Amino acid sequence: MSGNITEKALGLLRSLPRVCLANLRDAPGARKQKRRGRGQHGGDKHGAGNKGSLQRQNYTRVGYETGNNPFYLRFPMEPYYKGQHMRRQYPPLSLLTLQTMIDTNRIDTTKPIDLVTLFNTGIFRISPAEHQFGVQLTDEGADVFKAKVNVEVQWASEIVIAAIERMGGVITMAYYDQHSLQAMVNPEKFFYRGIPIPPRKIPPQDVIEYYSDPVSRGYLADPEKVSYERFVLSQKYGYVLPNLEEDENYEMLVERKDPRQIFYGLNPGWVVNLRDKVILKPQDEELQKYYNS
Amino acid sequence: MLKNIFTTLRNCQCLSKSYSTLNPLEPRKLLFPPKYLKPRQAWVENLDTIDEKKLGLIDLHPEVFADSPRIDVIHQNVRWQRMYGNVCYAHTKVRSEVRGGGKKPFPQKGLGRSRHGSIRSPLWKGGGVIHGPRSPTPHFYMLPFYTRVMGLTSTLSIKLAQDDLHVVNNLDLPSDDPKFIEELVKSRNWGPSVLFVDISDIMPRNITAASDTIKHFNLMPVYGLNVYSMLKHDTLILTARAVDLIEEKLLTHLHRNNPLDVSSKFKVNHT
Predict the structure, then answer these.
(1) Which of A2, A13, A101, A117 would best serve as a mutation to test chain B binding (most B beta carbons within 10 A)?
(2) Scanning A37, A76, A77, B96, which has the fewest C-beta atoms within 10 Å of its C-beta?
(3) Residues 6+ apart with CB under 8 A from B31
(4) Can you give the residue range of the structural domain that contains B46?
């Protein structure tokens, strides 16, 4: 359709005068010029309206009721949102989007999927500076999710875990602190800084239970308990759990990061030199001790 | 001296790349082959004789050379190119900047005159100016990335549709005489002004010398190609290698899978 219109327009141009700098114009009505008041309206209201506090910018403070006991003070405080600005956020990514990314070759399922993989798709971003601590996988599209993946996210519900494990995949919840996330958001930029990869911090007190719980597939949980919980979940939702050991991609599916590790294949303390294409590893004993602890 | 020039070459990584050699019998392999649109075709001409020789046909990618002719987008590009480097130095003084005017000119009451506090009030002749231009007013703004890309594809398409775009095998002329190239352009009915485009900014010696004295024959490397210059010149002459490079660059942007990186808000690099 659009090709047809384009053809017509280009065909029309053959019999029209040459398009040049002199006969260009914007689409009608595309640009409306702002005009200041002219002549006797020059010193008018300047868009501020007529008289009073709106013109003089002496607004009363928000919530002030000219002497009444204000509404916001009338009731005892109920701190629903205490510390809201400090809470960790996990921007959502649905299973449907993940499946689409896989189908459109943005994600390679023959390798483990982590945050860096998602960032490398070019269409998913988080900003650690705004207290975003990774991604939560949501259950939209759980019934159409068909990929077998080894995926590592920061938060997911039981249904999401079931949807992934039903297809023979593996899911892990892993915590990353802000410094680690900053390195992961743009690894190339981080490596160009020439600083060693930091060791990943352990989760803070309020989520350490979540990340060491086999039910939530925490990365600090005992793998044997996790495999038991996989079986329990399959019983609950009524699917046959595919056997991991018999899988042809067994090596990939059981690959996990060390709790101190940020990038697959790179250990904390290493410096990736992109210019000389070498990896520098710490030789000093004290450094090794620090990064291995 | 030449070494100095070569070290400052901009954007000429293309020199090291290999481009499709021109073989009329062999169809050109298009990048991102179009699924539904047919490729455009153009004759490849020569520049070494005054009479035109058709050396072969070249396939042109329809997404670059048969894009919809958006006059408004081209207009936006031209407006942006004219504006962004422009700083306006027109300046008027407000009442506080005009010399004098501190004293009350006459008493408030008793003279039968209207009330005035300063002889430099904007109501007075020789007083300050209200809403006048203030210097410097920069007119810099950035056009959205894909509007710039579309400006290029639209302009190339229009040039091709109006027979103002010609493809040549190379820019080698037999002589550096300006008369030769004038004769050539005249005999082929190319517009009075002609823009020759090649991949690098070091052009063959003969065409450089020949076009040096003719103000309306200009040479340009692909990295300098822009909407304004294409429209300023009546005819656009691309070498076959330039066609390759232009298509490669524009198609990369039209098909990139991370448009967020280029379409985010423009930031001036302060460093």
Answers:
(1) A13
(2) A76
(3) B61, B247, B248, B251
(4) 36-85+140-264
Question: How high is the pLDDT of residue B70?
Answer: 96
Q: What is the pLDDT of residue B18?
A: 46
Query: What's the rounded Cα separation, in Å, for the pair B254 and B266?
Result: 19
> Pick from B66, B79, B257: which is nearest to A6 by CB?
B66
Q: What is the spatial distance between Cα A73 and Cα B64, in angstroms, rounded to a whole number?
A: 64
Average pLDDT, chain A: 92
Task: pLDDT band for B271, please (50, 70, 90 cuts).
Answer: low
Q: Which of A5, A14, A125 lies closest to B162 in CB terms?
A: A14
CATH number of the domain where residue A90 is located = 3.100.10.10
What mean pLDDT comes out for the span B246-268?
88
Checking if the pLDDT of B11 tops 80, the result is: no
A125 → chain B, closest CA residue:
B260
Residue B157 backbone dihedrals phi, psi, to 5 degrees: -65, -45
Give the minimum alpha-carbon distance from B226 to chain A in angstroms, rounded to a whole number: 13
pLDDT value of position B60:
96
CB contacts, 8 Å: B259 with chain A: 122
**Which helix H or strand E contains A98, and what residues bound it?**
helix A95-103
Contact A10 B232 (CB under 8 A): no
By the CB < 8 Å criterion, does B13 face chain A?
A: no
What is the structure's pLDDT at B270? 53
* pTM score of the predicted model: 0.77
Residues 6+ apart with CB under 8 A from A236: A162
Asked, for residue B174, whether it belongs to a domain, the answer is yes
Is A243 inside a domain boundary?
Answer: yes
pLDDT, tens digit, 9 for 90 and up, residues B23-73: 554 678 899 999 999 999 999 999 999 999 999 999 999 999 999 999 999
Among A26, A36, A125, select the one facing B75 at the smallest CB separation. Answer: A26
Note the pLDDT of residue B5: 47
CATH number of domain containing B185: 3.40.1370.10
> Which helix (DSSP H) or strand (DSSP E) does residue B219 occupy?
strand B217-221
A83 touches chain B (CB under 8 A): no
What's the structural domain count of chain B?
2
Q: A158 is in which domain, residue-wise?
A: 86-266
